[in-house]
Fold this protein.
Amino acid sequence: MDDIADSNPILDAALDYPYVEYKAEEPLSRVVAFGDHSHKCPVYVERTPPCTAACPAGEDIRGYHNLLRETERSADKWAEAFRRIVDKNPFPAIMGRVCPAPCEASCNRAKVDQSVGINAVEHAIGQYALEHKLPLEPAGPASGHRVAVVGGGPAGLSCAYQLRRRGHAVTIYEAAPKLGGMVRYGIMGYRVSRDVLDAEIQRILDLGVEVKTGVAVGRDVTLEELSRAHDAVFVGIGAQKGRNLRVPGGEGTPHATNAIDFLAAFERDGEAMLRGRQVRDVLVLGDGDVAMDVARLALRLGARATVASAVPRAEMACSRYELEEAEADGASFRHGVSVVEILRDGEHVRGVRCVQMEKKAKGEEGWNAKIPFLRYKPVPRSDFEVACDMVVASIGQATDTAGFEQATAGAPFIPVDASYKVPGLANVYAGGDILKIDLITTAVGQGRKAAEAIDATLRGIARAPATRADVIGMDRLHLWYFPKSEMARRKHACSEAVRGAFHEVLSPLTAAEAASESGRCMSCGQCFSCRQCLLYCPQEAIRMFKSNPIGETMFTDYAKCVGCHICAEICPCGYIDMGMGEGL
Ligand SMILES: Cc1cc2nc3c(=O)[nH]c(=O)nc-3n(C[C@H](O)[C@H](O)[C@H](O)COP(=O)(O)OP(=O)(O)OC[C@H]3O[C@@H](n4cnc5c(N)ncnc54)[C@H](O)[C@@H]3O)c2cc1C
Ligand code: SF4
Ligand code: SF4
Ligand code: SF4
């Protein structure tokens, strides 16, 4: 053994190789080990897994799975897994509860049996960190720069955190009484408990972020004033307005409201939001995730909830998961209907007039629109009445850009360049729902990327242009190694007594369940030291150095390698390329 290590210049070169740190935002392939130019031997190439490529926050998902299943060694795997997540996303406990997990939809394992339960593992890591009061890394040495963050939702908080850890002084200006944005005023406590929300926000504030709540930029201070008083400004004001129904009775009728106002009113006033009036039947119009949130809150308030959707169940815009949760809670559904009038009895809602909807004929305008609702049209003279005493329109959100006209140039959203900088303004950046209404993970990712751009500008560092991710697909994996298994499922609280049940419904996996679920990860694009190449190499050309970092444990002795390709054919995670020579 020693003779090879002592005498092999290739091995020495590999051991001396200055391995670059893996960065999800710079995900080009990197050659981890290489040797001479004999055109025949294996090279180890790390690629971006599709889960990370699909996570807008940019989490190193493969990294925390490899920690939990102990492929990557660590003195405290849970604390290290937490550090790995919060490098990109400071809200693992929140995201583990409510992210719809685009990462799972892209996970290679989904094509083998079922996706890895990434969101559930994230939930378990977030929970561990809260229970063990794990802090974020402290603020970096003071840079002398001051940045204003407008809006204390996920985008603003993510940006504030990333700036503060880089040593910049940060002040958040928030119009609402509390931080959290739509996670507090839209996502109800039965999905994210306020203890969890407050704890993950507090962890950021503990780094020394200053907060001014109850300050609306545009009303109490102008964007221009902030821009002059700070080295940079980040705008993360989200989309704060709900859309009311534009039908007779849609405006100005008590108990005819929109989803955003309905949910925010509960967060602000609790059950007092109903102003003492008994509400028995709530009709929710819409077919998205937010409509499910409204129905589930109405049920918890003790009402019956009916969701009226213009489209059949199969075409609803909401995720299957949200739909099934609403059904399990007891919501009723009327498909293929739309509301054309809100009916009043004096002051109060007594019902709605509906029409039947039918699919547009092929070729008719909108027949194949992206938004399911637009593919349908009313059936003439099909109207009928449905009784209810409250109507909540869940038909989308809108932005409120008053005071930000300089940034929007009259548009309803703020435009940004590739660095999240607002064109035409010297030091103003933006991210989150104010760019395009989307998800928390998107807001978190954009807040981080804007912070990185602000940091680079303030320090005068030139940034390398973004490169296209080299994402590893199924075609490069060798699946024989992975026995079929099912995704771990989290427990949901029994929905028998939904009324008054404002506690969280989703329980995290246990530590053992989470570690076992991480074991299902195929480590796409990075060696996980399975030793198959070493065992199958007919030349005994492959050596393992167990104490090297993950991805850097295997080395080929090119003096012995005959270029048979067996290792590349056997490697489960597609880490070996044959093709050393030109181009590398
Ligand atoms: C009902 C509902 C349910 C949702 N459920 C999910 C879910 O399950 N999973 C998911 O990933 N996403 C969900 N979303 C989407 C998610 O909440 C948003 O994408 C995310 O919160 C956007 O973050 P943001 O920071 O850009 O904006 P916001 O969260 O809206 O935060 C913006 C903040 O800016 C403040 N602000 C606004 N104007 C000013 C001003 N002029 N001055 C100072 N402060 C200002 C606001 O008060 C707010 O605190 C949901 C949204 C809603 C409405
Ligand atoms: S934030 Fe969402 S997309 Fe990203 S890893 Fe977590 S669940 Fe997946
Ligand atoms: S198997 Fe693992 S590395 Fe591969 S896409 Fe899924 S979670 Fe990511
Ligand atoms: S076969 Fe196993 S040990 Fe060899 S490179 Fe691939 S993952 Fe690593």
Observations:
- Residues 2-133+472-578 form one domain.
- The chain is about 30% helix and 15% strand.
- The two ends are 29 Å apart (CA to CA).
- Residues 55, 57, 59, 61, 89, 95, 99, 101-103, 118-119, 122, 441 surround iron/sulfur cluster (ligand 2) (CB under 6 Å).
